[in-house]
Amino acid sequence: MQFETNGSAPRRLHHLLTRWIIGAWIVAMMAACANQTTAPVPDASRNTPAAYATGSSASVLPSWRDGSARHAILTFIANVTREGSATFVPPEARIAVFDNDGTLWSEQPAPFQLLFMIDRLKAAAPAHPEWQRSSAFRALMAHDVSALSEHRKELLQMLSVANSSMTTDEYDQSIRSWLTSATHPTLHRPYTELVYQPQLELLDLLRANGFQVWIVSGGTAEFMRTWVTEAYGIPPDRVVGTQEKLTYEMRNGKGVLVRHPGFDFVDDGAGKPVGIFRAIGRRPILAFGNSDGDREMLEYTATGPGPSLALLVHHDDAEREFAYDRKSSLARLDKAWNEAVERGWVVVSMKRDWAAIYPMPKSALAK
Amino acid sequence: MQFETNGSAPRRLHHLLTRWIIGAWIVAMMAACANQTTAPVPDASRNTPAAYATGSSASVLPSWRDGSARHAILTFIANVTREGSATFVPPEARIAVFDNDGTLWSEQPAPFQLLFMIDRLKAAAPAHPEWQRSSAFRALMAHDVSALSEHRKELLQMLSVANSSMTTDEYDQSIRSWLTSATHPTLHRPYTELVYQPQLELLDLLRANGFQVWIVSGGTAEFMRTWVTEAYGIPPDRVVGTQEKLTYEMRNGKGVLVRHPGFDFVDDGAGKPVGIFRAIGRRPILAFGNSDGDREMLEYTATGPGPSLALLVHHDDAEREFAYDRKSSLARLDKAWNEAVERGWVVVSMKRDWAAIYPMPKSALAK
After folding, report:
1. How many Å lie between the alpha carbon of B6 and the closest alpha carbon of chain A?
2. Do A221 and B246 touch (CB under 8 A)?
3. Would you say A16 and A266 are in contact if contact means Cβ atoms under 8 Å apart?
4. Please, are residues B322 and B279 in contact by the beta-carbon 8 Å criterion?
5. Is there a domain that residue A28 lies in?
6. Is A135 a member of any domain?
7. Residue A188 CA to its chain's centroid (Å)
8. Is the pLDDT of residue A26 over 70?
């Protein structure tokens, strides 16, 4: 019996990280800009849920404008919950899977987990005087985009070192601590407020209709687990993600898990159906993504034996969020778009279909 | 960033499989015996739940005899559910993990999944005429224990081939089909009836007290998922196990997962805390095992920050089930026993603590 690493995994990993790293210099640049100019705080009134809700059943999905996407969702939910009908799906098989970055919350100018990892790197720098001689580190600190791009591999290694060696309990604390203090470089809100209001309503509607809602993300489960229960109402054991290398050890009489550089499993692209099978054990009937990394997850869902619904968020709203698709170096939506057209998947336009993007800022709600 | 297989995983894998294979020749031998003599059908009246229940709170855990094990369980549950007390644990943190083979159902003369895999091998033989020349195959068919023991590696390879290449959907069907027809070689009951009645009562009691119950087993999740919901009331997504290699493919317009020889993750020994962290994301407060493969899981649970309970089933009942512990080549209970003594874990004696072993046979209930 062989015991080999799947040959395609390192390639997928490299691809995933390359996409993230390309995003990294964008954020470095934008953060630099943010130091000089203050981006406008979004107008809360424009984002108030329900403000734009019109058409039928306005009380459900109030931040979804009436249109083909909203209609497809409501029709699908009605079909699978109508007892006695040919399209009925029993509650235990109502599995809904959502990508996270770009589907449930924003992912520009780079996935927020990468921003966290970069902050960890900066925080770890005093303990690594040798980094001062590193071209990648100097480029990162100087926001030197072109130099950073040349020294990607070195940056990856430093990121890896800065985000390993500690126990999972310690890492968990550092994530929680970061999330309470960090804010988005241009939107100036805590990251956990940059979740999509229409999706929060959809998650609630699905649960009210007996669905089990799961996150299936290219990020790591441990990063997401610290905040998704409060943000989305999704429990920590319903988060499927990329898996860091871990070993079990006894330290000071306590059993702990220690993080090591590298990943055992990359939950992206063709890895997503594998991650779904391993964690959930059943084929989903609803899948929601936003990029080529979600293509196989949507395909696996949509080619199942019974009714299914596959959806993609199209980021076409530069004014209220960000606009990027086929040409994006980060989170490209190209092949999945082609397959959506071919197979009749639902493409959700942020601009047209969503009356609001983010929930009201907590600071505004407190007033 | 490196992408290497954890160096200790192949060793653990080999260890696990070796233990299983040693069991394999025992079962081959016993199956041969079973062809000649009919073992006595267990006396259902001796196994009737509640028949022996005595002492306090007899209505809960009726198949557990009053004693220190039952007392420890009831005290622990009372402590963690008493609101306002220092030992109170909120429901979302009431995670209970159970090993499967030897803890929730029998595992002698070999883990039942291995018996299934051997049956798959025999069924696949006509498609592999080259196996007729294999010493391992001939030894298996002839129940030749010593020859089989000499050709272990070859047997492993055949097992691997016979249990891969098909899709997970096809494999799932073959498991379900096997479970409906196969019976235990000496107990002559369907395998899914060889679950432990006292444990069924404990699972119910835990759930009634707000616990989330998970299986964490060295077997594969996909084998267990087909029957654990009906047998234990545990949903398919609460099963953590060893993970076979899988790839996602399109076949005839349908997205499928194809099984390949070998494992990506071995959920045994020090792998169990890793599997728990990845799937559940929280440290359990109750863990129940029966062998050295569960030692780290119990240790990880028992060294957590709050109240915890670690338990081991001791198979000391040759009359009603099987008797094996420190010297067993399969599912040895030795190091974990030492640690149980040292740390005060609860050792449950099947002979003393369990009034019944199995539920009433379904055939008897139907009468």
Report:
1. 8
2. no
3. yes
4. no
5. no
6. no
7. 19
8. no
CA-wise closest residue to A116 among A168, A167, A180, A37: A180
Tokens representing B147? 């020859």
- Cα–Cα dist A38/A185, whole Å: 9
Helix-helix angle B295-302:B271-279, to 10 degrees: 60
Kindly report, residue by residue over A123-164, the tens digit of the pLDDT.
999 999 999 999 999 988 888 878 887 888 888 889 988 999
Q: What is the pTM of this model?
A: 0.88
Helix (H) or strand (E) holding A310: strand A309-316
Tokens 């429990």 belong to which residue?
A235
**Lowest mean pLDDT: which of A22-36, A298-312, B40-54, B186-200?**
B40-54
CB neighbour list of residue B182: distance below 8 Å, 6 or more residues apart: B115, B116, B119, B190, B191
Distance of CA B330 to the CA centre of its chain: 12
Ranges of chain B whose pLDDT falls below 70: 1-58, 365-367
- DSSP label of A139: H
B contact test, residue of A5, A264, A266, A272 with most B CBs within 10 A:
A264
Residues of A with CB below 8 A from B264's CB?
A: 6, 264-265
> What are the tens digits of pLDDT across the range A154-201?
888 899 889 998 999 999 999 999 999 999 999 999 999 999 999 999
Closest in A239, A248, A300 to B281, CB measured: A239
Q: State the residue range of the domain holding B254.
A: 42-110+168-365
Is the CB of B92 less than 8 angstroms away from the CB of A274? no
Nearest residue in chain B measured CA to CA from A241: B278
Strands B239-251, B254-265: pairing kind? antiparallel
- The pLDDT, as a whole number, for residue A8 is 52
Q: Nearest by CB to A281, which of B13, B160, B221?
A: B221
Residue B92: DSSP 8-state = G
Distance from CA of B45 to the nearest CA of A (A): 36
Number of domains in chain A: 1
| CATH number of the domain bearing residue B88 | 3.40.50.1000
Q: How far is CA A273 from CA A99, A172, A293, B256, in A?
A: 12, 27, 11, 9
Residue B23's pLDDT is: 54
Does residue B298 sit within a domain? yes
In a domain, A174, yes or no: yes
Ramachandran angles phi, psi of A315, nearest 5°: -80, 90
Distance CA A268, CA B29 (A): 46
Read off the tokens for A123.
């925080």
Supply the ipTM of this predicted assembly: 0.88
Residue B7: its chain A contacts at CB < 8 A?
A: none
